[in-house]
Amino acid sequence: MSAAAATIAPLVTVDAVHTYYGKSHILHGVSIDIGPGEVVGLLGRNGVGKSTTLKTIMGLVQPSEGTVRLNGEAITGLPPHKLARRGIGYVPEDRRIFRFLTVMENLRTGLDRSGVDDAKRQMLLDKVFQFFPVLAERRTQPGGTLSGGEQQMLAIARAMMLEPKIVLLDEPTEGLMPRMVSQIRNIIEVLHKEGVAILLVEQNVPLTLEASQRVYIMEKGSVRHQCAASEIDIHHPIVKQYLGV
Amino acid sequence: MGTIVQFFQAIPIDLLIIQTVNGIVTGMILALVASGLTLIFGIMDVVNFAHGELFMLGAYLGFVVFAATGSFWVALIAAALIVALLGAALQIVTLRPLIGRDPLNTILATFGISLVLQNYALWQFGPVVRKIPAPIEAQFTLFYLQYPWYRLLIALISAAIIGGFWLFLKHGKFGVWIRATAQDRVMAQAMGIPVPWVYTGVFAIGAAMAAASGVLFAPMAGVSHTMGLDWVLKAFIVVVVGGMGNLVGSVAAAIFISLLEAYATIFVDPSQAVIVSFVVLILTLLFRPTGLFVPTPK
């Protein structure tokens, strides 16, 4: 753990979580923590439980053992919509844009909540349209008609409407062309500067190491290694061992 | 060929126009009943067998409120509101605990609700048919018929309710929530939309639509504890023919089927004309199981 993260109380703590899908034991006592405003990478091969870890934090999967805490308060068992209102944004692996809703309506799903007056609404919209001008151009278009990259931008913009304290980003660069990948990299940077914490699940190891401050490496449903991102690179033996890069 | 042309030429044009008007009027009430049903199915994946009983209960409540206030319009609004509240309570108590279970559970639950409501109505009001007078008694001459203005008014009110609901779905905050939930329940939750309450709201709206159509229909045929059965059966046919969960498709299918039945009564007895609906249903299930009014998925 970095010195900064050790001194500040973590924003999200996942503590010895065990998760099952039916009889399949997916997470075997996973423990991770993310500090306020920190970008943390979660690396590992396919099927090691990275996405399940995100879903467990988001309340989409209920752990059978262990707890998830937000600002020190246990949130295990709370329904996802309450977690979203408490400031957890979720950008899933397959983006899950509301295909038949327009871009604006997609954004409204996060905006139409108590505590958002017209001024704040405009401020939040202005901010995302500044980051993603293409979404402003396409605001009346159904989400399903956007390209893959634009859908990824919309998924992130939609999560930003919740004014999240943390965004759970699941493979944001999957299937995107290189130009879009660097744009996603910039967006992570922007979110970080805004003080939003990010838990980033990625197959793209160089990008994750570059964007994150700390990384956790998972294998077979457990965290095998954690370190500062600056301590390793793609040639590091640990990366070779667990990620086969 | 000549015989067929002669056969159609033999149909008097006035009869054809009368039946067209009849078909559209019945079609609009049916569309209102079916909209609630298709909404509940499209969003919650619940096949609501109690829908006909909510229709019936609306009519009885309309009768009770009308007896107390003497105003048809107060009766219409009160019945819709009370049944909406009842629908919300029923959803919370019986359907919400079944979310995520096998659909058979919800089918059995709604079937149970339907039996309870039907027998409650029989116990409370007895088998006698009750009558609510139409708010407008005036008639106009349609060829050789004295046609009640009220029937046209029903079609207009139904169209207004469905249209208003469509606008609400399209532009209202809760409308966007409903559509988001229908498209991706999990992601809707992750965006902070309280999905269990959206379900309750949708069920309440569907119930209110059924109740409103019950009150609107009551002056035409009276109120009885079995009045929901015919309508819910037809509404199910409409929902399947229009494409499960497709609001616009349901409205189109309701008018289409009602027109076909109305035209069929030119040649056969009205009780036999019902067969037309079943023929359309069977043909739809055989050749376009996704519904007549949605593009075939590729």
What's this, in brief?
The complex is a heterodimer of chains A (245) and B (298). Chain A has 245 residues and is an alpha/beta fold.
What is the strand arrangement across the widest sheet of chain B? 1-2
Beta strand count of chain A: 10
Largest interface: A-B, 24 and 18 residues
* Helix proportion of chain A: 25-40%
Radius of gyration computed on alpha carbons of chain A: 17 Å
Report strand % of chain A. Answer: 15-25%
Give the distance, in angstroms, between the N- and C-terminal Cα atoms of chain A: 24 Å
What does the largest sheet of chain A look like?
A: 6 strands, mixed
Mean pLDDT of chain B: 89
Strand portion of chain B, in percent? under 5%
| Oligomer class | heterodimer
- The shape of chain A, in one word, is globular
What is the typical, i.e. mean, pLDDT of chain A? Answer: 89
Count of runs of 4 or more consecutive helical residues of chain B: 13
The outline of chain B comes out as: globular
Report the biggest beta sheet of chain B as strand number plus sense, adding barrel if it closes.
Answer: 2 strands, antiparallel
The level of helicity of chain B is: over 70%
**Poorly predicted regions of chain B:** none
Uncertain runs of chain A: 1-6
Explain what this protein looks like in three dimensions:
The complex is a heterodimer of chains A (245) and B (298). A six-stranded mixed sheet of chain A has the order 6-7-8-3-9-10, with helices on both faces. Chain A has a four-stranded antiparallel sheet with strand order 2-1-4-5, with helices on one face. Chain A has helices at residues 3-7, 50-58, 80-85, 103-111, 118-131, 133-137, 148-160, 178-193, 205-211, 237-243; strands at residues 12-21, 24-34, 39-43, 65-70, 73-74, 88-91, 166-170, 197-201, 214-219, 222-228. With 245 residues, chain A is of the alpha/beta class. Chain A is built from ten helices and ten strands. In chain A, helix 4 runs parallel beside helix 7. Chain B is mainly alpha-helical and 298 residues long. Chain B is 76% helix and 3% strand. Chain B has 13 helices and two strands. A two-stranded antiparallel ribbon of chain B has the order 1-2. In chain B, a hairpin with a 2-residue loop joins strand 1 and strand 2 (145-148). Chain B is globular. At the A-B interface, helix 3 and helix 4 of A face helix 7 and helix 8 of B.
